[in-house]
Structures are given as structure tokens and as C-alpha cells.
Design a protein that fits this description.
This protein is of the alpha/beta class. Helix content is 63%, strand content 9%. The chain has 13 helices and 8 strands. The chain has an 8-stranded mixed sheet with strand order 1-2-4-3-5-6-7-8, with helices on both faces. Helix 10 runs antiparallel to helix 11, helix 11 packs parallel to helix 13 and helix 12 packs antiparallel against helix 13. It is elongated and about 210 Å long.
């Protein structure tokens, strides 16, 4: 494949633009690059190889040109005026220098077809809508045709001049431009895969061109068709040959209609055959259903009789159930009354249990008091016993003291030489008997002292008795009492 390189320049446009021509014969095709703004874009994307058959056969001559995308569409940080000026200057270069180069290199080969993929499809469509008289057709692959989708927030009125949707919307005010476009073959293709984001703008453009009366072909390939060079190669191989032939797109459209009709007819034939088979199956099924229906009618008679019997039985059992439920309600009422009475009895039993517990506690206290009283009684009885023993001992000591007193008295009477007055002797004896126990020590001696007072009285009585009988009382002797007052 023969190639040739050129460089274009136009006053008012920054930089030079390279052009590479592929082939030596055939209708010229101007290709706008995708994204990278280089004339080598199509070769690197495999498009040149995909179209090599058409180029080598002399059916087309391919002109790949640089773009100004870096200074316009993709220059997001640059001022809007600069971006619009760069884009306007670029299309001036295409419409003048590049179209003149094509005429010089391919004279008498017809007007060039403009093609592009991605951002190249947008540029190719803008070129066609600006000056349709310069071109012989358009093939736009997976383009985005609304400038607002590309520049975003930078969108202003100036961008409408480079927005295909807006340009198509203005065709109603320019009938000559619309007529020029109607005589050309215009093809727009995109996939319906997730990455084909510009598909919505293609549908919008389709509506605007249809409203303006401009005939164009719009194809929407399957959901597996994405935004890639592989699919663009296949789309170009199918559609560029149609653009190179007169009414080629119409024949493709007609062929697609015929193909669709043939496919529909084949599908209808298959459906007819399937319907015939299904009809035969349905007839067989109908016969089976009729037999089943007859059997079902016989069965339904028996089932109706069974239903009637079951209905009667159901009524009987319903009556039994009604009585059972009534009995259940009666028993429930009795049970409720029994529960109420049981609860009342339980309340009384709980109160009685409380009273019993209180009585048991009081009884316990009483038992403890009885036990204490018994213990005190035992102690008292023991004390009484000890007191009785003490009394007996005191009595014994009293008798002994009396005996000793009497002995002392008798001894004293016998030992006194002088006879004391009868009235004085008993008094002296009583005094000696009373003073003698006082010399004893401890509780026992005290008890003796207490007991010895009675014998003193007895002695006095005895002395009185003797005096009455005429017994002579001995005289008082100093020896009858000791220095400590006790009796000798």
C-alpha cells in the first residue's frame, strides 16, 4: 500500500497539521482521528488494515489528518474564547487547505467522504453540517453529538456552532442547507453496550434531522458492541463500501429490510411448522381430555353422592360439637367457680397459718416462761431446804445453848456465897445469856445469838418462878461477866 505525507498550514491557526494519504486511486475519504489528535490514529487503531482491501482495490484513497482537539475539545483549562477560536481555525483549514489538497491529489475522483470514530465522529459531523457542499457523504462511528456532553460546565452560546444537535435543530431556518444534506448519504452507527455513552445524543440527532427532513441512516448495534477500535473496524468494513456506491446505504437498508423480512418469513415458517406439530398434539390431547371428561363425569356423580353423605355426617357432627362446646362452657363455669372458692379458702388458710404461726410463737414464749418458773421453783425449793436445815441446826444450837445456860446458872447459884435478891438474879443470868452469843463470829453465830434470846426469857420466867416459891437469889458477882461483856 502506497503512502504519502503532507503538512498543512493556515494563517490564524496555531501550528502545522500533518496529513498521511493511503492509496493511489478511488474516491477520497477524509478520516478525523480519535482522541490522540494525531494523523496516525487510524493506522494505530487498525482501521487502515481493516480497509486495506478497498484501498488496494483502488476503490478509495484515505486521507488521515491531525486534529486540534488538544487546543479545543480537550483544553478544559484554557479560556473558552481560545478553545472556540482554535476549533473554528481548524475547520477553516479543513474546508480550505485540506479539501484543496484532496482535489489536487485525487482530481476527478469525486468529492471526499468524511469519516471519524469517537471524537473524530463529532468532528466529521460538524464538518458535514457546516459545509455539506464540500463532501460526498458521512460515516460517524460512536460519536457524541451534543457539545454540552463534551465541554460540560464550560458550555456557552459559542459552542452551539460546533454542536451537531444544535446545528441540526437550526436547519429549519436554512432550507438550502437542509436540501444539500438530503442529497448525501449520511450514516451514524453506535453500539448499545454500557461504554457507548453517546448513544443518547445519536438518538437526539436522529430526531432533529428527521424533523428537518434530512434523510440519514441510524444504526444501533447490539449490547455486546462497545466503544472500541475492534467494533469500529467491523462497522467501517460494512458501511464504507455502501458510501462508495451510489444509493449504497439505501440498498443496505433495503437489504436489511429484505433480510429482516426473510428472517421473519423463516421464523414464521418455523413457527408454522411448530404450530402444525402443536396442533396435532393438541388434537391428541383433546381426545384424551374427552375420555378423561367422560370418566370425570361418572366420577363426579359418585363424588356428589359422597359429598351429600359427608354433608349429613358433617351436620350431625356439628350438632355433637355444639353440645360438646355447651358442656365445655358449663364445666368451665363450674371450674371457674371452684377456682374462686379455692382461692377464697386459700386466703383463709393462709390467714389461719399466720395465726397458727403467731400462736406457736406465743406458746413458745409461754413454754420458755414455764421452764424459767420451774427453774426458779427448783431454786426456791433448794433454798427452802437449806433454810429448813439451818432452822434445825439453829434449834439444836438453841437447845444446846439453853442447856449450857442452865448449867451456868446452876453453877453460878452453887458458887455464890451470898444470896442475891430474888429479883436481880434472873436479870443477871438473862444478861449473861444474851451477851455470850454476841461474841461468836459469822452467820451461824448470829443465828445462835438470835435463838438464844428465847431461853433468856425462859430463864427469867424460871427465876421468877423460883422467887415466887421462896428460893433465895444469890448476890451479883463481878465474875459473872467478862471484860468483853460475854457470859462466863
Amino acid at each position: 500500500m502506497e503512502t504519502k505525507d503532507f503538512t498543512l498550514h493556515r494563517d490564524g491557526v496555531d501550528g502545522d497539521f500533518d496529513v498521511t494519504m493511503y492509496g493511489t486511486a478511488g474516491q477520497p475519504v477524509i478520516a478525523f482521528p480519535e482522541g490522540d489528535s494525531s494523523c496516525t490514529s487510524w493506522e494505530e487503531g487498525g482501521m487502515v488494515d481493516a480497509l486495506a482491501g478497498l484501498i488496494d482495490a483502488g476503490r478509495m484513497r484515505l486521507f488521515c489528518v491531525d486534529s486540534a482537539d488538544g487546543a479545543s475539545w480537550y483544553a478544559g483549562c484554557a479560556p473558552t474564547d481560545y478553545r472556540l477560536a482554535s476549533l473554528d481555525g481548524y475547520f477553516d483549514l479543513i474546508e480550505n487547505e485540506l479539501c484543496q489538497l484532496v482535489r489536487d491529489e485525487a482530481p476527478a475522483s469525486g468529492t471526499p467522504i468524511v469519516v471519524g470514530a469517537g471524537i473524530g465522529a463529532l468532528n466529521a459531523t460538524v464538518a458535514m453540517l457546516r459545509r455539506p457542499s464540500l463532501y460526498g457523504g458521512l460515516l460517524a462511528l460512536s460519536g457524541t453529538y451534543d457539545a454540552a456532553w463534551v465541554v460540560g460546565d464550560a458550555m456557552s452560546d459559542g459552542w452551539h456552532a460546533f454542536s451537531p444537535v444544535d446545528l441540526a435543530r437550526g436547519l429549519g431556518d436554512n432550507p438550502l442547507l437542509a436540501e444539500a444534506l438530503s442529497g448525501l448519504q449520511l450514516a451514524f452507527v453506535c453500539g448499545t453496550g454500557a461504554s457507548e455513552e453517546g448513544g443518547e445524543t445519536q438518538r437526539t440527532l436522529q430526531g432533529e434531522l428527521t424533523s428537518a427532513g434530512v434523510g440519514a441512516t441510524f444504526e444501533y448495534w447490539g449490547t455486546d458492541v462497545d466503544h472500541s477500535w475492534g467494533w469500529w473496524q467491523e462497522e467501517a468494513r460494512q458501511l464504507l463500501p455502501c458510501l462508495l456506491e451510489e444509493n449504497g446505504l439505501h440498498r443496505r437498508y433495503a437489504a436489511s429490510i429484505v433480510g429482516d423480512a426473510r428472517a421473519a418469513a423463516e421464523s414464521a415458517g418455523a413457527d408454522l411448522a411448530g404450530a402444525g406439530a402443536r396442533l396435532e398434539q393438541a388434537r391428541e390431547r383433546l381426545a384424551q381430555v374427552r375420555d378423561a371428561l367422560a370418566a370425570a363425569e361418572e366420577r363426579i356423580k359418585a363424588e356428589r353422592q359422597s359429598v351429600a353423605e359427608h354433608a349429613r355426617e358433617s351436620e350431625r357432627l356439628a350438632a355433637v360439637a355444639h353440645d360438646a362446646w355447651a358442656e365445655k362452657d358449663r364445666i368451665a363455669a363450674l371450674l371457674e367457680d371452684a377456682i374462686r372458692k379455692g382461692n377464697e379458702a386459700q386466703v383463709k388458710a393462709d390467714a389461719a397459718a399466720t395465726e397458727l404461726s403467731s400462736a406457736q410463737w406465743i406458746a413458745g414464749e409461754a413454754e420458755a416462761a414455764v421452764a424459767g418458773a420451774k427453774s426458779e421453783r427448783a431454786a426456791a425449793e433448794e433454798e427452802v431446804a437449806r433454810a429448813a436445815e439451818a432452822v434445825e441446826a439453829a434449834r439444836a444450837r438453841e437447845a444446846e445453848a439453853k442447856a449450857r445456860l442452865q448449867a451456868v446458872l446452876d453453877e453460878a447459884l452453887a458458887a455464890e456465897p451470898e444470896e442475891a435478891p430474888a429479883a436481880e438474879k434472873p436479870v443477871a443470868a438473862r444478861k449473861a445469856a444474851a451477851e455470850k452469843p454476841a461474841a461468836a463470829k459469822g452467820p451461824a453465830a448470829a443465828r445462835k445469838s438470835a435463838a438464844s434470846k428465847k431461853p433468856a426469857a425462859t430463864g427469867k420466867a424460871a427465876a421468877t418462878k423460883k422467887a415466887a416459891t421462896g428460893t433465895r437469889r444469890p448476890p451479883r458477882s463481878r465474875k459473872a461477866s467478862g471484860s468483853d461483856g460475854s457470859a462466863r
